[in-house]
Amino acid sequence: MRLHICTVTWVSALTTCVCATAAETPAEEDDSTGLEEIVVVETRLDDGMFSIGEGVSTDGTENLAARPVDTEQLFRRLPGFSVSRPGGAGGVSEIFLRGAESNFTVVYVDGIRLNNPSNTRGGSFDFSMLGAHGIDRVDSASGTMSAVYGADAMAGVIRIRSAWADPGSANAFVEAGSVRDWRAGAGASFELGNDVEWNVRASSLDGGDEIEGSSLRLDSFGTRLAGGFGDRGSWELNLRHVQRDRTSFSEVSGGPQFAVSRELETADGDELSVAAVADWLVTESWRSEVNISSARLRDNAAVPAVAPGVLGGQPAFTAITDYERRELLWINRVELPGDAMVVGGLDFVTEDASDTGAVDLGFAVFPSPFEMTRSVSSAFAEIGRQWNGGFTSTLALRWDHGDIDGRLSGKIGASWAVSDRGSRVWAHIGNGFKLPSFFALGNPLVGNPDLIAEKARSAEAGYTHAFGNGNELILTTFRSRYDDLVDFDFESFTNINRGRIDIDGVQVRADLELSPGIGLSLDSTWSDISSLSGPLRRRPERMGGLSLDWSAAQRWRVNARARYVGPRLTTSIPTGDVDASSHVLVGATVRYEHAANRTVWGAIDNALDAHYQDAPGFPSPGARIRIGFDLGL
């Protein structure tokens, strides 16, 4: 049974066994209507020539129009994304892309992969480490992407780009909400001469007291140095540091409503990532790129015991994890005669992980330390060609080898233009894999060093109809299958490979310009999610939404949005499984540009005060009002 709450599974099992034995600031706003721009991230080929599928993107202009309160709200309004965060701002957030496990999606921030395979959730990204105000752009693609991005990209890829001040300028923002939450930050850009630019930014936020027991403090600092090699290429150095502290009732405790113990889960963590990127023209048809990056993620979580209820109780435990990832990536892009391109390169990754936590059963404390290292070397190639008659084809292959058995991933796609305005039919299929997490492999209580890689196959086909003037309708049908999933076996008291998930669905999206200054985006996703390992929780099979962006006057801009989230299964120890009802979230943001560099705005979240629970016993955030001020220099 895949609870997607690994800690519940192994610590509850441990109790059973032992007891039986013992008796930033966004970029400057433009005047566009904020219609969603679609960018393909599923390939390393030139997107403009070889785009096959239809990804999902949101940029700084849209984020300024909507001013999402956090990263979860930003992703919640994107097609195919479902978000779960029991416990308010201090809870652990997860994003399910088209119903797949949250740890099946790879997340990059400024080109650095930040999934953490040492955590108890199998390597999912902790979005509480990222403030929405520091995001300039998000690009995502669904489907198996291991042929392009390597291991772990079984459900898709999310690429996040940080926000920086415009060259030679500075900016600042401040925001306050009705639940005593606030956000503030500042950034600047300096031109150092010889085409060298230095950016710096810092921000802080407090999540307020929206839900009992919930608290979040996040401090972030980033800097970037960028320059060029004349007209032959460019280089960039990035550094990012984040410090986070949070509290909440534990996810399966029953929350403020049902929890027997009022002791809170606490966690503090930090992230330090650095990257150096350079690309240059070797010849007029050959461009080479080198990307060297390093990231260190640390988390110290203490989870209190949960008394038995409908389900067995959970003992107290700590997870003190330290994860480091280093990568050297070399990419070469060569333009070939006949509207063709080939990309090839090498990728070298080393990972180190450790955990010095323990499980406290009251009468005894069982240490659960582990320390592991993993290295993977990869070679990859992609080729794309535009043929006569509006036909485009792509093929990607990747070989990964190291401390794992060698594995070949592939992806093939085709697109056929059916009109001069951009309408087209397209399809792609691929296979991929995910390496077992360090926790699943190395935990001395439940780890299994003999676990094999989880596997995925996916297929997607669609039709994009372009009406002209940026208006388009996208119809997509998709199918994914995930095999050999890591699951906990109570009989052998260890993790084993046995799970399987099948997901079929249809997604419809439309971006429309109703009139000059008025843009409308709509989307709906219907899916059928089945599991041979037991019910899957916290992911709805029906989702949809709309966003209306209106430049009401020269200085006024209004953004209104609504999001439907269908029924889904949730669980807690006091209640067992609970069928959570559907709900609709409605919000709006109004911006007034007092001057070219001064803007005042106000927002209301969950305007209709919809009552819903991401987990039993956790009340939904009620209606909230926020106001803010942006200043540019």
Please give a structural write-up.
This protein has 633 residues and is mainly beta. It has one domain (6-632): TonB-dependent receptor, beta-barrel domain (Maltoporin, Chain A), CATH 2.40.170.20. It has seven helices and 33 strands. The chain has helices at residues 6-22, 47-50, 60-66, 71-76, 146-149, 255-258, 438-442, and strands spanning 56-58, 81-84, 94-97, 105-109, 112-113, 135-142, 156-162, 170-177, 182-193, 196-206, 215-228, 233-248, 265-283, 286-303, 316-336, 340-355, 358-360, 365-367, 370-386, 391-402, 407-417, 424-434, 454-468, 471-489, 494-515, 518-531, 542-550, 556-565, 568-572, 576-580, 583-595, 598-605, 624-632. The chain has a 22-stranded antiparallel barrel. A hairpin with a 3-residue loop joins β15 (316-336) and β16. The longest helix has 17 residues, at 6-22. The protein is globular. It starts with 5 loop residues before the first helix and ends with a strand. Mean pLDDT is 90; it is low at 1-38.
Brief summary of the model shown:
This protein is mainly beta and 633 residues long. The protein has one domain: TonB-dependent receptor, beta-barrel domain (Maltoporin, Chain A), CATH 2.40.170.20.
List the helices and strands and how they pair.
Layout: H1 6-22, H2 47-50, E1 56-58, H3 60-66, H4 71-76, E2 81-84, E3 94-97, E4 105-109, E5 112-113, E6 135-142, H5 146-149, E7 156-162, E8 170-177, E9 182-193, E10 196-206, E11 215-228, E12 233-248, H6 255-258, E13 265-283, E14 286-303, E15 316-336, E16 340-355, E17 358-360, E18 365-367, E19 370-386, E20 391-402, E21 407-417, E22 424-434, H7 438-442, E23 454-468, E24 471-489, E25 494-515, E26 518-531, E27 542-550, E28 556-565, E29 568-572, E30 576-580, E31 583-595, E32 598-605, E33 624-632
Parallel strand pairs: 4-7
Antiparallel strand pairs: 1-6, 2-3, 4-5, 6-7, 8-9, 8-33, 9-10, 10-11, 11-12, 12-13, 13-14, 14-15, 15-16, 15-17, 16-19, 17-18, 19-20, 20-21, 21-22, 22-23, 23-24, 24-25, 25-26, 26-27, 27-28, 28-31, 29-30, 31-32, 32-33
